Amino acid sequence: MDDFSHAFATAFGLLTGFDPGLWRIVALSLQVAATAVLVAAVIGLPLGALLARYRFPGHGLVVSACNALMGLPPVVAGLLVYLLLSRSGPLGQYGLLFTPTAMVVVQSLLVLPIVVALSRQVLSGLWEEYAELMASLRAGPWRSLWALIVDARLGLLTVLLAGFGRAMAEVGAVMIVGGNIAGHTRTMTTAIALETSRGDLPLALGLGMVLLVLVLLVNLVATWLGERVRRAQGLAA
């Protein structure tokens, strides 16, 4: 019990003392997760809007695939990216393996299906309300898609927060392609796993506290945005 209390006290000291090693890991984690969500948003939001807006042969199959890929095992994603970026892989010449860029790639791969699937759900109902209006205004495809995204911005922000939470909590895939290299590719989740196995509980607990606070903040903001969206829909009805 004394050892446990000492570990907590030391972890709190690392946090309040702004230990450079700890906060460097936190900064890299935030940077990688935010970049991955940005990449997924740039690709996924237009794709989700297209799936909400248009029906085509195989539409249901594509939607089902996106929903299924939301549960893509992280270690499988990590293995695929590893094979892609390894020296014998098609992109091995660029030397991206065991770099933050590789971590962004694998996290983008995991977040993208979430953004596509959830944004499609958000935008599908909205398009049913907008279809006749867009037709009467003779809005082109891109203009109508942009109008959908802008009007559903709060709901889509909730989707991106869900993706950010997914990226922040990832450990297996990031460890495979990043290598958990100190000062270079070590994130909060991989550092917690490593330091716990080495018995360095203060650092693991400190990082765990930061990660827990970040996840709670993301969930609180997502809940608040969801309530705003539901309230706005209730007023519109």
What can you see in these coordinates?
This protein is mainly alpha-helical and 237 residues long. The termini are far apart. Helix content is 80%, strand content 0%. The longest helix is centred in the middle third of the chain and has 37 residues, at 100-136. It has a single domain (2-236), classed as MetI-like fold (Orthogonal Bundle), CATH 1.10.3720. The mean pLDDT is 84. Helix 1 crosses helix 10 (201-236) and helix 7 (153-168) runs antiparallel to helix 10.
State the separation between the terminal residues, measured CA to CA: 57 Å
> Helical content, roughly?
over 70%
- In round numbers, the mean pLDDT is 84
Output the CATH class name: Mainly Alpha
The tally of structural domains comes to 1
Strand content: under 5%
Radius of gyration from the alpha-carbon trace, in angstroms: 21 Å
Helix-strand pattern: HHHHHHHHHH
Q: Based on DSSP secondary structure assignment, what is the total number of beta strands?
A: 0
| CATH architectural category | Orthogonal Bundle
User: Structural class, judged by helices and strands?
Assistant: mainly alpha
| Sheet with most strands | none
Query: Which fold does the CATH topology refer to?
Result: MetI-like fold
General shape: globular
CATH homologous superfamily annotation? MetI-like
Q: Counting H and I runs of at least 4 residues, what is the number of helices?
A: 10
- pLDDT < 50 stretches: none
Q: Could you give a quick summary of the protein structure above?
A:
The protein is built from 10 helices and no strands. The protein has 237 residues and is an all-alpha fold.
